[in-house]
Amino acid sequence: MTNLLKTMEINLGPQHPSTHGVLRLVLELDGEVIKSCTPIVGYLHRGIEKMAESRSYLQYLPIVDRIDYLGGFFNSYAFCDCIEHIANVEVPEKAQYIRVLCMELNRIASHLLWLGTFMLDLGASSPLFYCFRDRERILHIFEELTGQRMMYNYFTFGGVRWNIPDAILDSISVFVADLPNCIKDYENIITNNPIFISRCKNKGVLSKKTALQYSITGPNLRASGVALDFRKSNPYLVYDKLNFDIAINSECDALARYKVRISELYSSLEIVRQCLDYIRQSNDEVINKTLKPVILNIPDGEYTSSVEAPRGLTSCTVKAGGKNPYRVKWRTGSYYAVQLLPELINNSEIADVMAIFGSLDVILPEVDK
Fold this sequence. Notes:
The structure is a single chain. The protein is of the alpha+beta class. A three-stranded antiparallel sheet has the order 1-2-3. It has a three-stranded antiparallel sheet with strand order 6-7-8.
């Protein structure tokens, strides 16, 4: 009771716009200083893992796009890869390059949305419109290719559903040529802005030891000085044939997490350029070698596929057998980032909560599943 008289408990969310979804943070405040933080999740739980048990593999495939609605291609790849390994289905090389092309464009679109909303969390509105302007060009490309702006359902077992027309390749080429100048504009506005630096530098410091203890992956881990990128350490698809740099920073704070994601925009553009060159020069029109478009019965087996998604490592484990999956389990980066919040924001001021939380790039549908 003595402690309660000294401190005040408040709820941040679940309706707060800067919680990136329906997240509730129960904060104990001593004046402006946070003494404890309890994240409460589950408001968005949809039972996506359980859904798999009552659906065929093909019926479940469109649902996985919704786990991370900003990175649907990564979820689709992870699930398809599991089924392809269990059923021993070969993916043509051209289809692999198309998958990488789509995923890296998806990564750029995800990082652009993160950057715009992160700056809005800090009170800057102009970067939001610039980032959404450029992200919109990617969504137009995806809409032309897949018919959808967000839930694509373009990857399928054995490859992709159809080839990329030359007109779409031309649109991608123009976008790839334009975006570096746009990123430079972002940096001119943001990177050396004294207000931005004061809000992010030495805020939410995540040491290498703590990041590893909490199983943090992706840009948040690389911003703590750990050069772990599954595209390099455990290459999948054709990443071992592509040249790109791992974005890494050892400053460990919110500013470092911003810098890593800005660097990843450039590295993803480089990957997209290489994929474009291969697809244009390839004479192979085979994008799917499966004889049947619908796989009715998958042999008994279990496989885990991992993909380097925008918010960290996304892993899908499928235990197969019969017409429906027996079990499906998803491991997503955002869930681990939410667990990290008490470690990062305790003893910080309440004004720093959104700067620290926003720098982690959490998407709540990926947390609740």
